[in-house]
Amino acid sequence: MKNKYIDLIEQTFEFPQEEFRVDENELYFNDIPLMDVIKQYGTPLKITYLPRISEKIQQAKKWFNVAIAKADYNGDYHYCYCTKSSHFSFVVEKVLENDVHLETSSAFDLNIIEELYQTGLVNKDIYIVCNGFKRPQYIENIAGFINNGFSNTIPVLDNMFELDQLNNLIKTKYKVGIRIAAEEEPKFEFYTSRLGIRYNDIVSFYQDKIKTNPDLELKMLHFFINTGIADNAYYWNELSKCVNVYCDLKKICPELDSLNIGGGFPIKNSLSFDYDYEYMAEEIIAQIKNICERNEIPEPDIFTEFGSYTVAESSGVLYSVLGQKRQNDREIWNMIDSSFMTTLPDTWALNKRFILLAINNWEEEYERVFLGGLTCDSEDYYNSEAHANAIFLPKIRNGEPQYIGLFHTGAYQESIGGYGGIQHCLIPAPKHIIIDLDEEGEITTKLFAKEQSHKSMLKILGY
Predict the structure, then answer these.
(1) How far is CA 35 from CA 38, 170, 307, 405, in A?
(2) What domains appear along the chain, each with residue ranges and CATH number?
(3) Among 274, 201, 218, 224, which Cα is nearest to 82's?
(4) Which of 87, 125, 134, 245 is the most exposed place for a label (fewest CB within 10 A)?
């Protein structure tokens, strides 16, 4: 009878997979022996495996460049990293090793890029795509960059009055982009994105405010679909509309040469995840080329802004099961040594699901459980996975320690959770280690942050 945890995983999924395998009853993540890491650092523990970031970037660049070659497409491809996914220095520095550009969302992003420039990690030729609804400090920082010679800094206009604010501060000729306010899926509570300028206003806005100004060059048209890049009628319809707007503008604006399709490549949130990235890149390029040919205009350069795709799959969070509580004849709670509300806020705030796997005891029988966090909040639990409305883990035997990991958690968790700040119920933020490979390909680990101390919390609280 196959009732072991390893049997369940192997019968349910194609396993092992690219980043997961089991050796001698223990889980390996990107060939990292996780039990060795736990023995050295303890739990709860956040890990980031830096080489995975480079792998994801190079994969996407390959897919789009191959698609361009197959379609005999006459534009270039530019990969931008969406910094809001993770601002950590070790992430951004690894990203920049891969010859990419940056996309920003706020004033402080530009302060980070200034630091990168001072240390020689970026130069003034890098594309800096500045998105978002812009407060005065953001406008001021953008203007400072352009005035200081960062000629490829492109403020993407989110509304029609940002342009006047920029013109008041920028003292040289500069490039701008326009963001299209895409229509939302029918199931959304609103019809049109709050971000960007309406389709019907874009051409007249260009003619009235940009074409007449000799110091302005419309470089880029930008759009983004909240639900991501998906092979469905809604996405292809929105892409078609946006490319047609690009064609209308190109006919009256010769200097326009770039189409930014935003982010939206999905991340693997289940071992059953199935997404054909290569096909989607090829189809996007082919559809853009076809629409441009019908309109008899040259194909644009393509920009993407991949954030979660870039960094999410590099990380995981490791927990210990402190104990088990049987609350009734159907519900068994495994209590972890941290809080989902503080370490994985996406799980309760946005109902996101990650890959959940046992780290040890794969040869034990499995049982259905709920996972409970340490806080006294009713929302601090995890009870289902992306592929099933249930969680199964090895049965706990005779006090044998059980460790679990949630993986592909590298995007947004620290920023949503308030890294370094006050945590719910004062549950401390866990240790965070960085894992890399040295020149010989050997695994190296470095402690990036200790577990949050009571002194740091009391200081924030004014004690």
Answers:
(1) 5, 55, 29, 11
(2) 5-50+312-460 (2.40.37.10), 52-311 (3.20.20.10)
(3) 224
(4) 125
Which regions of the chain are under pLDDT 70?
A: 1, 183-193
- What pLDDT is stored for residue 200 in this prediction? 85
Residue 219 has which token pair?
């470089």
For the CA atoms of 358, 361, 367, 369, the dihedral, rounded to the nearest 10 degrees, stands at: -40
Give the number of other CB atoms < 10 A from CB of residue 378.
7
pLDDT of residue 226: 80
Beta bridge partners of 245: none
Q: What is the DSSP string of 64-133?
A: HHHHHHHTT--S-EEEEEEGGG---HHHHHHHHTT--EEEE-SHHHHHHHHHHHHTTSS-TTS-EEE-SP
**Which pLDDT does position 192 carry in this prediction?**
64
pLDDT digits (tens, 9 = 90+) for 118-162: 999 999 999 999 999 999 999 999 999 999 999 999 999 999 899
Q: What are the distances in angstroms from CA 367 to CA 322, 351, 397, 419?
A: 17, 23, 12, 34
Q: Which pLDDT belongs to residue 329?
A: 81
Q: How far apart are CA 104 and CA 122, in angstroms?
A: 15
* 442-452: pLDDT as tens digits: 999 999 999 99
Radius of gyration for the alpha carbons in the chain, expressed in angstroms and rounded: 24
Question: Which helix (H) or strand (E) segment is 303 a member of?
Answer: strand 301-306
258-260 and 45-49 strand pairing: unpaired
Instruction: Identify whether 186 is preceded by a cis peptide bond (ω within 30 of 0).
Output: no
Q: Which DSSP string do the residues of 429-460 spell out, in sequence order?
A: PPEEEEEEE-TTS-EEEEEEEPPPPHHHHHHH
